[in-house]
Amino acid sequence: MAFVLAGGRGSRLHNLTEKRAKPAVFFGGKFRIIDFALSNAMNSGIRRIGVATQYKQHSLIRHLQRGWNFFRAERNESFDIMPASQTMSDDRWYEGTADAVYQNIHIIESYSNVEYIVILAGDHIYKMDYELMLEEHVNSGADVTIGCLEVSVEEAKAFGVMHVDESDMITDFLEKPENPPTIPGQDGVCLASMGIYVFDKEFLFEQLRRDAAEVGSDRDFGKNLIPYIVENGKAQAHRFTKSCVRSEGEEEAYWRDVGTIDAYMEANLDLTSFEPALNLYDINWPIWTYSELAPGAKFIHDEVGRRGSAVNSVVSGGCIVSGARVDQSLLFTNVYVHSYSSLKRAIILPEVDIGEVVQMTNVVIDKGVRIPKGLAVGNDPELDAKRFYRTENGVCLITQTMIDNLDK
């Protein structure tokens, strides 16, 4: 079984998560972030999936109901959405990642033939074959196997970091350490946790019950359960490079935490490259999602200064580019760009309407925003910072509330 933790807010995405949880944030023209973990599970042969939700969960639950409703009980399959519903006797919400699983033990126990549980974070972009990780877990005889990334020492300070021996057995686990331990024989490189864990079901339940009875615990895998198991049991590190799914043209083991506006922008723009680092066109490892019914994208007008065109861009169904230029940008479903406007390095979420004579550079525009005629963003950093949320790297996040406040 795969258990996906999807209750987090993702506060570093600022206004993008005012109305939706981070796993429900749009990505790649037609997907949501959570679709990647769920698709990895599907493509790995896992047919029992549970998703724990909590923060601003309506958008996420609606997406899951529409796009992930093809599991059938008669095929020994299940897909359960598990909102924080205060089912425990003391009427509390999920207090941590481990508690989200603990509160649903009674549901998991009702499934037949579940021997192993794969715990997944629902807010990262990557392609991975979990079956290969499960195979390593079984062969090693470990109590827990942890998916790991190789990162620099500086990057490792933001992760849970593992100290391992020559066989990748974990000897120490540190949560966001100031001085991360490096991999033996690889100076300057650390093993960081991906937030992916494989457990034997009964062992996991035993640990969850033990942790739930411990006074003062944060009820968290990274802070509590994993350090305890490393100290008192057997924990194995599984390197992402062993199970990363690389499609044609992909050279790196692609994994992104799109937890900031800058990271979100760059990961989306990755898809517009001639040879994208993440290939979403591989029919052998499809990313499943809910697809809206929309006509094909349309580009109209062919006059000097008023030509509908898109270069090095991804344009989704239902979009109309009317006498405007789109360059190195990504347009989600049902975006309308009016005449004489230009977009460059722009991530435009669904149902945005961009008026005439608009210039947008280095922007992320939230769903449903109406951009007024003549607005220019990306030319004046000080003015942009006063009107919108602007990152240190110069990316502006634009919401409808910000547009409504322009004249105030």
Layout: helices, strands, pairs:
Layout: E1 2-5, E2 26-27, E3 31-32, H1 34-43, E4 48-53, H2 58-67, E5 78-83, H3 97-102, H4 105-108, E6 116-121, E7 125-126, H5 130-140, E8 144-152, H6 153-156, E9 160-164, E10 170-175, E11 189-200, H7 201-212, H8 221-232, E12 235-239, H9 240-243, E13 255-256, H10 261-270, E14 298-300, E15 302-303, E16 306-307, E17 309-311, E18 314-315, E19 320-322, E20 325-327, E21 330-331, E22 336-337, E23 342-348, E24 353-354, E25 359-365, E26 370-371, E27 376-377, H11 381-387, E28 389-390, E29 396-398, H12 400-404
Parallel strand pairs: 1-4, 1-6, 4-5, 8-12, 14-19, 17-20, 18-21, 19-22, 20-23, 21-23, 22-24, 23-25, 24-26, 25-27, 25-29
Antiparallel strand pairs: 2-3, 6-11, 7-13, 8-11, 9-10, 9-11, 15-16, 28-29
Pick out the low-confidence regions: none
Average pLDDT, all residues: 93
| Total DSSP helices | 12
First-to-last CA distance: 52 Å
Derived from helix and strand composition plus strand pairing, the structural class reads alpha/beta
Strand segment tally = 29
Global geometry = globular
Share of residues in strands: 25-35%
Helix content: 10-25%
How would a crystallographer describe the biggest sheet? Answer: 9 strands, mixed
CA radius of gyration is 23 Å
Oligomeric state as shown: single chain
